[in-house]
Write a structure and sequence with these properties.
The protein has 580 residues and is of the alpha/beta class. It contains 22 helices and ten strands.
């Protein structure tokens, strides 16, 4: 299939104008390309997602925003890569002396390992927890390079860690990765902390290039506003893998990281985008199939092998807070379960069925009730055990023919992919052999799964225009995002929107003082136990009705988008509110 031409799509750079939604940081702006994505066909949805993704790789346009390929960004990456290279050389030499291999890398995630599988958004709001977790992990270390990731420069959990690093410069070198300018870092005071995220970043700015580094290219607004799991996640993967892979190559070949090496690696990732979206029609077929499953109350299951398993698990888990989805709507399973996942906390199956992630769990928990209304997607590569894949295919086909595959192969591979012949559709992508091809497979799979899960929820009616109108309000970031979504769609003041949101959260017609005086953490804890609080608040605002009437409206329009459209049609101020 020929590569699609997206040059005809207008508004690609409109978001860069200082007059475009000036009250929002880049990561929270709506993308002008996708303002009507909720009414698009599956093929057009994929085309729009591709157009948004290409914004990641746009060259510097001379605006106030630095981009992925800007010299300032690449030079900072070079400094960080050289720091990693030095640490690797030191660890490698020490390991040779000790005749044992020391662990060089570790990770911290807000909410712990369970956040890889389910929504644990509230943990992001605790800066002290972030600091204490980092301190415990690094106890006894003499030198630590800490990379804190917060796409919107907003997560208190990360801010606490960065602040801790700045207070101990003899051991820690902090690196911040995000996708907003420093001036758009979050200004709200963090719970139980004296600093804001912006103040922490400003302290890093004072030491930038010496004892602290900030990598924050603008990659453009997300296709679904605020959904940083998409471009934010992809750009993070590109930046980190480029830095770490370049540092590894240099450290173990006795060379040095260069500007050219970094650029070449990032251009390789740009080609991943082109190769993946050259299969847009097949991606649209997967999207449509998954969407039909969700629309009829079915499930979508990702069955993955190797490192693609983690890609599937994360994509599925992120649907819960983004779309207000149930954990069974889209689920990921990885061949060897936690052994393949290799997570710090080990096997988590004792926490409940939603933490059962092995293929054997799929066979025992899901397969018995599988039907043609469910969609099963296989993700595997030429490096995986094809015999194992085929065994699973044959078991699934006993229950449903709604089986599809995503396969990554290498150029010159003469082996016939027999698995695809057993599936309703097969998306086979061929790649040139390289030392980083497995990372390219992962990014390509991420792009495909992001399109499938986002597009299927669009078809289910979980998106209005390009806003996530059924998001879960489980932390302060999502609380403020919900208020701004309500304000944009209703056209009333932020104060009125917050009041409507609180009424929906607490299910009261009037707000008593104990609610209005409570903190955001209290509100989000209550909201985490509620469903559809944002749609409920929005209906109340649009037609000026009570909560009980709003609930009746939502019951008569089970599809959230349809309910919003019905209210906008009946609202006398609909034109002003929707164009706000």
């Amino acid at each position: 299939m020929e590569k699609r031409d997206f040059s005809e799509i207008s508004d690609t750079c409109k978001w860069e104008s200082p007059d475009y939604e000036p009250w929002f940081p880049v990561s929270e702006k709506s993308n002008p390309l996708t303002r009507d994505i909720d009414k698009s066909s599956p093929n057009h949805i994929v085309r729009l997602l591709a157009a948004c993704d290409t914004q990641m790789f746009q060259k510097d346009t001379g605006t106030t925003y630095q981009r992925l390929f800007s010299d300032s960004v690449v030079l900072t990456m070079l400094d960080v890569a050289r720091t990693v290279e030095q640490i690797l050389r030191s660890c490698f030499n020490r390991a040779l002396r000790d005749r044992q291999q020391n662990t060089v890398y570790s990770y911290i995630i807000a909410g712990g390992d369970r956040a890889l599988l389910t929504s644990q958004e509230a943990s992001e709001d605790d800066p002290k927890l972030g600091m204490l977790t980092l301190e415990k992990l690094c106890e006894g270390k003499r030198r630590v390079l800490f990379i804190g990731i917060s796409c919107g420069l907003s997560a208190p959990f990360v801010a606490g860690q960065l602040d801790f690093c700045l207070k101990h410069p003899d051991i820690y070198t902090p690196v911040l990765v995000g996708f907003n300018p420093v001036t758009q870092a979050r200004e709200e005071t963090m719970p139980g902390y004296s600093l804001t995220f912006r103040e922490v970043v400003q302290r890093m700015e004072e030491q930038r290039g010496q004892r602290a580094f900030i990598i924050n290219p603008a990659v453009g607004p997300e296709a679904i506003s605020g959904s940083s799991r998409m471009k934010g996640g992809s750009a993070t993967k590109i930046l980190l893998e480029t830095i770490l892979a370049a540092a590894h190559t240099a450290a173990f070949t006795n060379t040095h990281v260069t500007h050219r090496v970094l650029l070449d690696m990032m251009r390789g990732y740009e080609r991943v985008y082109s190769v993946t979206y050259s299969h847009s029609d097949q991606i649209a077929t997967l999207l449509q199939t998954a969407g039909l499953s969700l629309q009829c109350g079915g499930r979508v299951c990702y069955l993955s092998w190797g490192s693609l398993g983690l890609v599937g698990l994360i994509d599925a888990s992120e649907c819960i807070p983004t779309f207000g989805a149930d954990y069974e709507d889209i689920r990921g399973f990885i061949s060897g379960g936690y052994q393949d996942m290799d997570n710090i906390e080990g096997d988590l199956t004792s926490l409940g069925s939603q933490f059962c992630i092995a293929h054997e769990d799929f066979v025992s928990l899901v397969l018995p009730t599988l039907s043609d209304r469910d969609t099963v997607l296989l993700l595997y590569t030429c490096h995986d055990d094809v015999g194992d894949v085929e065994k699973m295919v044959r078991r699934v086909r006993e229950k449903t023919s709604n089986l599809h595959s995503l396969y990554h192969g290498l150029e010159g591979d003469t082996a016939v992919d027999s698995i695809g012949l057993l599936c309703s559709s097969a998306l086979n992508i061929t790649w040139p052999s390289s030392s980083t091809v497995h990372m390219q497979w992962e990014l390509s799979s991420k792009l495909v799964l992001n399109a499938v899960s986002t597009g299927s929820h669009i078809l289910k009616g979980k998106i209005y225009r390009n806003h996530m109108v059924d998001l879960q309000v489980t932390n302060s970031k999502l609380y403020h995002r919900a208020i701004h979504i309500l304000q944009k769609l209703s056209g009333v003041s932020l104060t009125q929107c917050e009041e409507a949101l609180l009424k929906a959260i607490y299910h009261v017609e009037q707000l008593p003082e104990d609610i209005t005086s409570a903190g955001v953490t209290t509100h989000t804890l209550t909201a985490s136990r509620r469903n559809r609080v944002v749609p409920l608040a929005l209906v109340c605002l649009l037609i000026g009705c009570s909560l009980s009437e709003a609930e009746s409206r939502l019951e008569s329009h089970p599809v959230v988008r349809d309910a919003v459209e019905a209210c906008l049609t009946s609202s006398p101020g609909d034109q002003n509110s929707t164009n706000h």
